[in-house]
Structures are given as structure tokens and as C-alpha cells.
Fold this sequence. Notes:
This protein is α/β, with parallel strands linked by helices and 364 residues long. It contains 13 helices and twelve strands. It has a five-stranded parallel beta sheet, with helices on both faces. Keywords: Aminotransferase, Cytoplasm, Glutamine amidotransferase, Repeat, Transferase. The active site is at 359 (for fru-6p isomerization activity).
Amino acid sequence: DKGNHRHFMAKEIYEQPEVIPHTFGHYLDLENERVALPELPFDLAGVSHISITACGTALYAGAIAEYWFERFGRVPVNIDIASEFRYRETPLQPDGVTIVISQSGETADTLASLRYAKEQGQKVIAVVNVPTSTIAREADAVLPTLAGVEIGVASTKAFTCQLATLACLAVAVGRAKGHLQDEDERKLVRAMMEVPRLMTEALTLSPEIELLSRTLAKAQDVLYLGRGTNYPLAMEGALKLKEISYIHAEGYAAGELKHGPIALIDEKMPVVVIAPYDRVFEKTVSNMEEVAARGGRIILVTDPKGAELANVPAMQKLILPEMPATVAPLVYSIPVQLIAYHTAVLMGTDVDQPRNLAKSVTVE
Length: 364
Ligand code: M6R
């Protein structure tokens, strides 16, 4: 049932302010403002190394979490696409944990990676949305994402629920390893509790995004740029646009612009820049200036401070409320999803069942 929505994808985007507190509720002790994971069959304090593997959108959730595991847990992370991970014969550290992420829990390459990691003596944590799935059954520990059934082929709410789950796990690792103080943890938990409200505000950008998608629907290629956790989010934005609108898109680390993709920029090329005001914002502004100087059209997704400080020609801005950096990827996912959604609707594609794609990829 799509409710009042035209597509399951829209319904699932709009469900996020409800499912996210549900997921956080499972992993947080709200009264004491602490992370409270279900008991794991091993001690997080002893984790020396984390490997993350997944496919598609689930991989990008992992790539965002990589920054959190390193920041809060001070644990080295190795992340790879499951179809590479399974054949790479990568040496895995003793005392290492492998995290596999999957909405369906049935993705063939992710499952094969899980089995490889287990053979190598790794403890495997599965972050899955379908608790009865094969990946959930075979893992040593399961952290469910609790997004509810996701029908649209383009993953939306499962992605943000993966982020919510992984953020809690990263805080738990940080605490277990003694790198996070109680007060820092409380601050992070308070920030997590703000996410549903921030998401609801982000959803009000929908009419503005619908207008702006007219520009994107005319484009042949779209570039997405970001730094830090907004870099994997840029890749996620590009994937979402590609899969449902069939417009070619690429996500790049903003700092890589000069190393190749800048050659693509001309007045026909929209560039979506995901850049809240943070410690790398000024760097991203210089990238935007480079794009503008070559006639590229910028759509900047930012906050009030960022909007005030970035002023380059031919720029459109989508302004989100100010928020703590750790939760920004969850909230910035909303405009990223809506950009793809409205563009695809304008293009007249089959949004929920895009051509050539299946919801669950159970063959290699
Ligand atoms: O079920 P999984 O999370 O393992 O699926 C992984 C990818 O196939 C999936 O995320 C795919 O990239 C989506 N269609 C993206 O929207």
C-alpha cells in the first residue's frame, strides 16, 4: 500500500522520520543517553581491526561508517565492494571483525564475503533489514536495521537505518576501547535523537527540489561532490540518480575534481555539492569556484552558515537546518533521495521497478 504516495519510493522516503527513531530506540538507552547494543558474542574492546563489505547503497552506508569507526573507535578500517572482497584473498587480522551490510540479507557477493571472513577466523556482524535472511542466519551477531519492508528497488529508508545502526555500533566501539568519554557519548546520543525532527524539516524541501529537478532532467551527466562523510553520500546520490532516472552520474571526492573530472565541466553539467558548514567547507568552496569558472551549474546542499559563505555564480541552494556533523549524513540523505526521485518522476521512468534491476541480487 502506497498510502497517499505515487510510488513506494516516495512513501519510503517519507517514512524515515518514523523508522529512524524506531531503529535508534533499539540501540539507545534514552533515559541515560547511552548507546545500549544487544549483547554480542565477543568483546568490542578487543577489536583490533574492522573490515566492511557490502554492495551498492549498503556499501556507501559502510563507507560513511568508516569515518565514524576511525573517529570514535580509533580502529583501522578496510572497506571493499563485496564482489572484490570475496576474491581479493585479503589477509584479515586476528581479532578483526568483519561487518557485512545488506538490506535483503540475500546478496550473493555479500554472503560469499561473510563466508570468506568466517573461514579466516573473523567474527562477523551482519547489519541487515531482513532478520530471517541467509546473511542474518550465518553471521555471529545480527544488528537489525528495523526499517520495515522496503519495496522500491532504490534503497532509501534501509540506507538511513543502516547509518543509524552503524553510528550506534561505532559509538559502542569507541566506548569499549576507551576513546569516547561519557559526555561525548551523551552529546552524540542527543544528536541522534534530533534526527527525526531534522528529517521532517528536510522533507519540506521537496517542492523546491521538484522545481530544481527540471534542470537535472535535461542533463546528460550529473556530478556529485562531497568531502568526508559527504563523499560516500555523493556516490550514493549518483547511484540513486542513475538507477531510477537513467541519467549518467558520478560521485567524487571534491578534492579529486582537479585530478580528472573537472575536464567534464561545462554549462550543460549540473554539479550537486553536498557541503554543510564544517571544517572542510572552505576547501569545498574553492572547488565550487573552479566549477563555476567553467560555467558548471551548482546545486549546493548546505546549512544557513554554508549558504551565507558560499557565493558563486549560477548557484542554487538547498538549505537544511544546522546540525551536529555526525548525524548530518542521515539528514542530508533526504534531499539526495528527493533529487533522484523528482528527476525520475519527470523523466517518466518506472521509479519503483527501474529497468534491468532487481531488489535483491542473489546471483553474481
Ligand atoms: O540487499 P542489499 O542491501 O544487499 O543490496 C545491495 C545493493 O544491491 C543495493 O543497495 C542496490 O545498490 C540498490 N538498488 C541501491 O538503491
